[in-house]
Amino acid sequence: MTIASNPFAEEIAPQLEADFLKLNPEQRKVVAHDDGPLLVIAGPGSGKTHCLTLRAMNLLLLGKAVPSELVLCTYTEKAAYEMQDRVSEIAKRVGYNEDISQMRIGTIHGICSRIIMENLHRIPNFDQQRPFIGNNYEILDRLPQCLFIFEHLDMICETSIAFFTNRWGTKWNIVKQLQTYFDKITEELISIEELRSQQDAFLYHLANAYRVYQALLVKYNRVDFAHLQKIAYGLLKRPKFAEYITTGISYVLVDEYQDTNYIQEQILFMLSSKTNNICVVGDEDQSLYRFRGATVQNIRRFLQISHAHKDDVIYLKTNYRSHSTIIDTYNRWMSTMHWRQFRSEKQIQPQPEKNYPEYPAVLSIVGKDVGDEADQFAEFVALLKEQGKITDFNQVVLLLYSVKEYKSHPYVEALEKKGIPVFCSRSGTYFSQEEVSLMVGCLGRILNYSEGLLGEIVGNYRMNDYLNNAYSRLGHMRGTCIMLDTTLHEFELEIAQLTEGQKIHKQIVDYFYHLLAIEPFVTFLNDDKNKSKRQNLVVFSEFLQTFQSYYRYNEISFENCGKLTSDFFNKFLSLLYEDGINQYENPEQPFPDGHVPVITIHQAKGLEFPVVVVGSLDRGIPGSEAIDKQLQRFYRRSKPDSGPSILPEPDQDIPIFDFLRLYYVAFSRAMHLLILTGNLHKRPSPIFDKILRGLPQWRDVQSHLSSMPRFPANKWMVPKPRYSFTGHIRMYETCPRQYQFYREYKFAPSRPEETFFGLLVHQTIEKIHHIILDGNLATLTETRLRELFDQTHYFLSQRNMHAIDVNEKEKAFDQMINYFINNLSEMQYITKAEEQVSVVKNDYVLTGVVDLVLERNGGLEILDLKTSRRPEPDYLEICERQLCLYAHALEQRDGKVPERLLLYWTQEPHKEDALMVFPYHAERVEEVVAGFDDIVDCIKAKQFSVVVVPEAHVCKKCDVRNLCIREGLIERC
User: N or C: which end of the chain has fewer CB within 10 A?
Assistant: First the structure.
C-alpha cells in the first residue's frame, strides 16, 4: 500500500510566529510539516536540532498530540536531556502548560529499556519457570560485556577454543573479536541455524559460541546493548505486545538517523506503525559509526520503507556555523570523489547576504618532521592567545584520527613546553597517572601480590613491569607519608595472618576508601585546580564496583585470598591495562576551561569550535571491515513493498566513502578558522592534495592574522541537573559529605543501598499492580502469585546482593500475600503504577516515581509503599514531604489536586496499622517545594561541610567515614 504524499501545509501555531519568521524556507517546511513520513537531510551547522524542537512544539501547540504521544530519539543521553530542556524553554516562553517531561525522549537503547521495563510482567515464560529476562536485569556496556565473555570463555567456546586461538591469538583478543561478532549477529538479526549450516568452519564455530553466549545471558539475567534492542524488537513483532507499546504514540522524531543500524531502523518504524508519522533527520556525509553497525543505507532507503514521496525530503543546506571559506573547503573535499547514486548531492551554502570578514580562514602548518609540526602548532596557539583572538585555550581544538599516546604525545609535549595545559582524556594513559599507579601499588602490597606467584597473567605480560614501577613509586612516597606506610603494614598483616576458617568482612573497595582518607590521596581529592586526579580515583571506584559485580568476593578469607588476588591482578587489572583505559570525562564540563582539547574526530561529532586544527593527514585509506565481508550475506534487510531495492554501497568503495565522511566531519567543526597540519617526513596522503594545494602556511600570513576578529567563547549547552527526592534531596539532608562523594564527585558506593528483602516484596507487588492494570486481576491466584514471587526472587539473586535465607524468603512472601488480600477491594481504583513524574524549575528538574495513582469517585489519590514497619514520627515527616512532591508534580501535569496522600507499611499485618492518610494542603505542598529550592541552592553553592553529624548507623555504613574520623567529626566506628 502506498500512502499518498502530504504536501507541506505550512501550519504554524501563532505562538511560534516569531520563531518561524527567523527560519529559512527549508527550515519552515520541517517545522510546519503535518502528518506522514519526512526525511530531513541536514548539512553541518544547518540548525537541525532547533528545527526538530520547534517541530515538536508546533505539534503540541496545534493540538495534534499531547507530550506523552511524542517519541524523540537522540544519539546520546546528554542530547536527550538537552532536547527536553530546549522544548521546556520554548514551552515556558509561549505559555504551553502541559507537562513536557511526559515526552518520551531518549537514546534508542533508553527507549528499548523502557519498553522492556513496562512489559516485563507480560513476557511469557520460556522454560515453564521464568521469562528470558526479568526484574533487575543488568545492562552490559562494552567493558562488562567483555568481562562476561572472558569469565565464561571456556563454556562459550567449548571445543572451539583452539580454533579461535589459532585465528585471533590471546584470550583477551578472542573476547574482543567475539564481542564484535556477537553484536553484529544480534543487530542484523542473523539466523544462527543458517550460520551453522554453512560449509565454513569459522561460521560454524561462531554460531555455536553465540548460542552458548545467549543462554548465559538468560541464565544470569544480563543483557548487552544489542540484545536490549533485540528483545524490544521481539516484543514489537508480536501483535499483542505491539498494541500495548504503540498505543498512544502519534509521532516519532529521530535525530542523527545516519548513525542507526538495521534493527534500530525496524524498531523506529514499528513504533510509528499506527500513524506512519515518522520524521528522521540525518546526513550521510556525517555517518561515522559503521564500525558500530550503523549504516547510511537506512537514510537511502527511507522513502521506500516509509512509502513516502520524493517531496517528503527536505534539504537543509545553509550553514550558520562556519566562515564561507571553510564551507567552500569541505564542499571541495567531498567533490574529490564521484559518488554516483550513493550520496544525496548537495552543496552546503553560506548564509545569504552575510558579510563574512576577509581573512585567511583556512591555513596550513607544515613542519620538517612531526616534532617541528607540533612546535609550530603550539606556537600558533600561543600567538592566538597573545593577540587576543581567543580568550580561552579551549576555543582551539586539535582533531586526530587517534589520540593514543604514540599519536598525541608530540602535540601534548609541545603545548606543555609553551605552558599551555592540555585535555587529552582518550590517550589510553589512565594507568600511568600518579594517583592510579599509587593506588594499584597500595592494593598490591595489601594483598601481597608478587610477580609470578599466582599463575599466568592473561594476555598481558607487561603488567609485571607496571606493578614493579608502581611499587617503586610507592616506595618513594613512604618517606613523606608515614601514615600511609603504617596503614598499609596494618592491612597487610590483617590478611597475611588469616588462618584456616578465618575471614574478614571486607572487600577490596573497603581498603580503597580507607586509603582515600590518608595522604597523598587526601591531597588528590581536595585539589580543585587539578581535578583530574580526583576524577581518575572516581573511575577506579567504578572499576572496583565492576570487579565486585563479576567476581563477587563479599569477604576475604584464608581460603579465597589467593584466588581473589589472582583474579584482581592477573585477570581484571591486566585486562584493563591491556585495553588502554581512558581518563575520566565530565559530561557537565566536556572540555575544561584553560585547556586545549586534543580529541578524536569521532569525539568532535556534533560539536563546534572557533578554531579547529586537523592532524593525522598522513593516514592512508583503511581496508574494508572483515566482519561485513564475512556476514553481510546473512543480513536480514527487509525488502520494500514496491520498487527496486536500494543498492548497498559497493564493497570496494566503502573505505574511501567513510574516509571522506570522517574528514568532512572534522573540517565542518570549524567556525572561524580551520588549520590543516602535516610534515615533510610523513607527508599527507595524496587524497588531501586537492584542498592542501595553494593553501597559505600560517607563518606566511601572520600579518593577516591581526585583522581577524576576536572569536567568541564556546557555548556548551549543559542540561539542567536532575534531582530525585531519595537519591539527592534526602542524601544531602542526611549528610552533605556523602552527597559530595556519591553525587557531586560520582564515586561508586561499595555496596548497594537496597535490601534484598525489601526489593523482593516491592518488585513483586509492582508486577501485581501492572497485571491488574492490564485487566487480569482474576488470573492472580495463589499459585500465580507464588510464581511471580519466585521469579522476582530468582532474578534478584543474580545481582551482587546479600541474599536472604529460606525463613526470610517465606516472611517476604507472607508480607506480599498479606498486602494483596488486605487491598483486594482497592485494586479496582488503580489507574497508574510506577508513574514517573517531574517538576521543571528554572534551573533544575525534580524527579520521582509514584508507586500508585488511584482514582475513586472522581477523586485522585497517590500511594507510596514502604516495605518496613510503621516508623517513628520524625521519619513520617520525611515521607510526607516525598508525597507532597509527587502531589505537586501530578497537579502541574494533570491539573488535578490529589485528595489524599497515602503511605502503606507492608510489614504491618493489619490494614488499619499499615495505611496512613495525609490530607492534601496546598500551603504545605508549597512550603515543601520551596524547601527543595533551598536545598538545591546549597548543593549548587557546593556547601558540603558536615554541620550536624548524622546518626551513628548512617556513619557506620558510609564509605567515606574515615575522612570524618581523620577530621575528628566522628569517633572510629
Answer: N
Instruction: Give Cβ neighbours of residue 277 (< 8 Å, ≥ 6 apart).
Output: 35, 36, 37, 250, 251, 252
Report how far residue 333's alpha carbon sits from residue 328's, in angstroms, rounded to the nearest whole number: 9
pLDDT score recorded for residue 5: 41
Sign of CA dihedral 634, 268, 141, 580: positive
Angstrom distance (rounded) from CA 488 to CA 158: 42
Each residue's pLDDT tens digit, 325-336: 999 999 999 998
Low-confidence ranges of the chain (pLDDT < 70): 1-10, 126-129, 451-461, 638-644, 754, 800-801, 973
d(CA 562, CA 575): 19
What pLDDT is recorded for position 458?
Answer: 58
CB 834 within 8 A of CB 849: yes
Rg from Cα positions in the chain: 30
Q: Is 717 helix (H, G, I), strand (E, B) or coil?
A: coil
pLDDT for residue 1: 35
Would the pTM count as exceeding 0.85?
Answer: yes
Task: Say how far apart CA 177 and CA 926 lie, in whole Å.
Answer: 57
Compute the distance between CA of residue 24 and CA of residue 12 in angstroms, rounded to an integer.
Answer: 14
pLDDT tens-digit readout, 937-960: 999 999 999 989 999 889 998 999
- Given this model, what pLDDT does residue 456 score? 53
What is the distance between the alpha carbons of residues 785 and 776, in angstroms, rounded to a whole number?
Answer: 13
Beta-carbon contacts of 232 under 8 Å, excluding residues fewer than 6 positions away, are 111, 112, 115, 116, 267
Report the distance separating Cα 576 and Cα 462, nearest Å.
Answer: 12
Q: Which domains does the chain have, with CATH numbers?
A: 14-117+231-318 (3.40.50.300), 138-220 (no CATH), 333-426+590-636+647-705 (3.40.50.300), 430-579 (no CATH), 751-822 (no CATH), 829-941 (3.90.320.10)
Work out whether strand 859-866 and strand 915-919 pair parallel, antiparallel, or are unpaired.
Answer: unpaired
Give phi and psi for 608, each to the nearest 5: -145, 150
Q: Are the C-beta atoms of residues 144 and 546 closer than 8 Å to each other?
A: yes
Query: What are the b/e assignments for 71-107, b being 16+ CB within 10 Å?
Result: bbbbbeebbbbbbbbbbbebbeebebebbbbbbbbbb
Pull the grid cell for residue 699.
607563518
